[in-house]
């Protein structure tokens, strides 16, 4: 993964078709995107972001590339991205670890500005059957209460528990985001509402 990141060209256009694909946005649209992102670039420059890399973002080759592009861009604009260990050893050796908890420990130890958890879910809902019940931000006390009263259920519970652990250890904020979304990291960091659930 490190080799992928080191050898990555964020945009590599060589043919007229490739150039055209990257010039479909008008100059004004490109400027608007940069203007929207600028306050967040300024806010996060020099800050440490711990990334829990997992879910479909680790399986799909296309999503892997987009995650690496996001991380490269974060690095180039002054953010300090840290990819938490995922339990991979030498060769094909893998280890059965709780990657969410490991990421939480890393984020806490580094006193990270933010931990970004790439998952296969958009975030937290007050009702799984109601897409409109999606929560873009909640205080950690509410997240704890939602586990206790059964609102948060199933596989998301250990993720939220890891989030709470990261916050207790000194991480400033944590976002659970959908790694199936291309460029999920950039969309969470550099847009007004983000795309996941931020727990603070």
Features:
200 residues, alpha/beta, six-stranded mixed sheet, two-stranded antiparallel ribbon
What structural class results from the helix and strand content? alpha/beta
Q: What radius of gyration results from the CA coordinates?
A: 17 Å
Overall morphology: globular
The multimeric state of the shown protein is: single chain
Share of β-strand residues: 5-15%
Largest sheet: 6 strands, mixed
The CATH topology corresponds to: Carbamate kinase
- Helix content range of the residues, please? 40-55%
Can you tell me about this structure?
The chain is of the alpha/beta class. It has a single domain (2-10, 39-199), classed as Acetylglutamate kinase-like (Carbamate kinase), CATH 3.40.1160. The protein is 42% helix and 14% strand. The strands form 2 sheets. The protein has a 6-stranded mixed sheet with strand order 2-1-3-7-8-6, sandwiched between helices. Strands 4-5 form a two-stranded antiparallel sheet. α6 (140-148) runs antiparallel to α7. The longest helix has 18 residues, at 27-44.
Can you describe this structure in just a few lines?
This protein is α/β, with parallel strands linked by helices and 200 residues long. The protein contains 8 helices and 8 strands, in the order H-H-H-E-H-E-H-E-E-E-E-H-H-E-H-E.
């Amino acid at each position: 993964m490190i080799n992928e990141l080191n050898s990555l060209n964020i945009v590599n256009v060589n043919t007229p078709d490739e150039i055209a694909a990257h010039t479909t946005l008008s100059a004004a649209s490109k400027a608007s995107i940069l203007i929207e992102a600028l306050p967040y670039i300024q806010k996060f420059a020099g800050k440490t972001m711990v990334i829990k890399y997992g879910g479909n973002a680790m399986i799909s080759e296309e999503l892997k590339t987009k995650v690496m592009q996001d991380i490269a861009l974060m690095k180039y604009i002054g953010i300090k991205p840290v990819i938490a260990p995922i339990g991979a050893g030498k060769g094909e050796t893998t280890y059965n670890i709780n990657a969410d908890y490991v990421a939480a420990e890393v984020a806490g130890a580094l006193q990270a500005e933010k931990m970004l958890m790439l998952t296969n879910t958009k975030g937290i809902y007050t009702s799984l059957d109601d897409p409109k019940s999606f929560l873009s931000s909640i205080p950690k006390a509410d997240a704890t209460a939602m586990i206790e009263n059964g609102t948060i259920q199933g596989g998301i519970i250990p993720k939220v528990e890891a989030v709470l652990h990261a916050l207790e250890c000194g991480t400033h904020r944590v976002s659970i985001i959908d790694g199936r979304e291309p460029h999920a990291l950039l969309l969470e960091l550099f847009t007004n509402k983000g795309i996941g659930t931020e727990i603070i």
